[in-house]
Structures are given as structure tokens and as C-alpha cells.
Amino acid sequence: MRVLFASLASVGHSYPMIPLAVAVRAAGHEVYFAAGEAMHPSLAANGLGPFRPADAFYEMYAEDLAPELARLTPDLVVGGWGVPGAAIAAARAGIPGIWHGFGRMFPDGIGLELPTAVAEASGQPHLDICPPSLQDAGFLATAERIELRPVPYSEPVSLSEWNDNRWSRPLVYLTLGTVFGTREVLATVIDGLAMLGVRVVVAAGRVPVEQLAGVPDTVTVRRWIPQAELLPLVDVVVHHGGSGTTLGALAAGIPQLILPQGADQFANAEVVSAAGAGLRLVPGEMSAEAVAAYAGRLLPRRSDHRDAARVLAGEIARMPSPDQVVRRLPEYAGRL
Predict the structure, then answer these.
(1) Pick from 103, 211, 222: which is nearest to 174 by CA?
(2) Quick one: which of 261, 278, 268 has its CA closest to 243?
(3) Structural contact between residues 310 and 251, judged by C-beta atoms closer than 8 angstroms
(4) What are the pLDDT digits (tens) for 218-268?
(5) CATH topology match: 2-150+319-333 vs 160-317
(6) pLDDT digits over 165-174, tens only?
(7) CA distance 314 to 131
(8) Closest Cα to residue 25, out of 47, 6, 51, 43?
(9) Going by fewer Cβ within 10 Å, which terminus of the chain is more open, N or C?
(10) CA–CA distance from 166 to each of 11, 57, 100, 198, 233 (Å)?
């Protein structure tokens, strides 16, 4: 079987698809991955045959992918929610297609077209990596879903500097992602966490590391952190509410303080706080003192928030693994 994956050229959209693509390749199938060149190193490192269709750099349209479908003749197209053009191109070419989610079904009006509104491909099934208890109720009721366990992905790197003295003091991971972070917000959050006397590791993302100079000795700032490797070591995650970090923290059973900045982050913050697995601070509520107070409530090793996070971790662990889902893909490839 030949499978073509397609996603936006960003970590938040490509990384959730890599575990399944790797499982497809490991099962002996042929894999290609259409994405902008920014993602090619990560995809190539996993043997996923990356290529850039037409002039696509970040977004991708049906017209970009149509010639590649004719060239590669895949048996199945797996397109991320962010690239409805992949689903449209597959439908037009008469090739079976499957949507691949990146988290909870996002609300309308965040700059992405809702997959359920794409007329030519709205009937295609969805690989859904969101635990059902957190998924949008309308989506659960109407969409054909293939449950797929969210597997955090990042390039493996040694994290011995944060694994040492693991129990000497709590470790907090802070990230605002790669799109919405600002120096002002990061500095405010760092000031708040410093009040707690915890160790903090910061993924600065789009904010230059030098702009955060002068942080306390208990704070380590890096441009990029291998999140999937770090999460099992931390006690609390403070973040923007991006789907990848939200699901990664839940899979590890870690309570989270969410500071939504835009896109689908407000919806993610609402559902996680409603489930009891974390707390949220919206922009108008944020201050160093508020961060310290809210994060401090999440730090105890025995708390209702940590218990709720562990319940969700158990739900995620029971979802089918990528290896299990791969066995079902030939069924969907043979639909047309």
C-alpha cells in the first residue's frame, strides 16, 4: 500500500501525524509526506519521503497536490485538518482519503476552514487524536471517527541537566509555542513562577533567548525544547493551550496552567479546566501574582487536579496505538 500524508508546514500540524506515518512505514508500506520545506528535516529523519508540492511553503491547495497524486498514485491520502486541499484533491482524483486531526475539533473563526464544511470531502473519516471525553460533542455525534492515541513527538535529545536531582524541587515547563509567544508575557510568567522557588525550563520559541536575559538561576531558557522527552520529567506545564502541548501534558498525567493567546487555545483551556485537569488565566487576568497563585495550586503531588489529569492519561492510554490503527488502513484504502 502506498500512503501519502499531507500537512501544513508547522510543528503543531506535522508532528501529530509523524507517529502514524512512522507506523505505516514500519508495517512495510510506502510512505510519502507532502509539506513545506521547513518540516523536511524532521520528516526525512524518520524516512517519510518528504517533498514540497508545487509552490507550497506553509499552506497547500488542491491544485498543488493534484499533479503529485497523478505521479505517485497513492492508495490512500491522509491529510491534516489544516490542509483541506489534500482532502479535496483526493476526492477529485477518486482516491480514498482520511482527515488527520491535531486535537479537539477547533471552533469556527480561527483562520482554518472547518473540515466538516468542505463539501467535496466532508464524508471522509477522521483520525481523531482527542480523548472522547474532551472532544466536541457535535463532532462526536456526527463525524465518522477512527480513534488514534496522541503520541507526543520530538527529536530525541538528552535531558540529563533537568533529570538530575529530580526530587529536590518541582520542575515546571513553560512554553507559549512558536506563534503567539511574546517577551512581555514570558517575562511576566517567569516572574510569577520564580516566586514559587521551583525549577523552570522555558522554550522561548519565537522570542529571542537574549531578550530573556537576567532570569533567576532557577530558570533555564532555550529556544527549543524536545517537549516529548521533557514532559515525563515535569510536575506542572504552563503553556498557551496549543493542542500538541495540551494533549502531551494530558498523556503524561500532568496538571497544566493554560494561558490562551489565540486560535483554538481558548477552547482547549476551557475544556481542560472544566475537566479539572488544569487551570486557565485569560489575558486580562494575567499577572505575575496570578501565575504564582494558580501554578502553586497545581504543584502538590496529591491534588484533585493531578488526579483528574491522571484519569485523562488513562483514557488516552486506552486509545488505539498507531500500530493498531495501521492495521485498519487497508480497509479505508479499499473504499472506492
Answers:
(1) 222
(2) 268
(3) no
(4) 999 999 888 999 999 999 999 999 999 999 999 999 999 999 998 899 999
(5) yes
(6) 544 789 999 9
(7) 10
(8) 47
(9) C
(10) 28, 41, 36, 12, 8
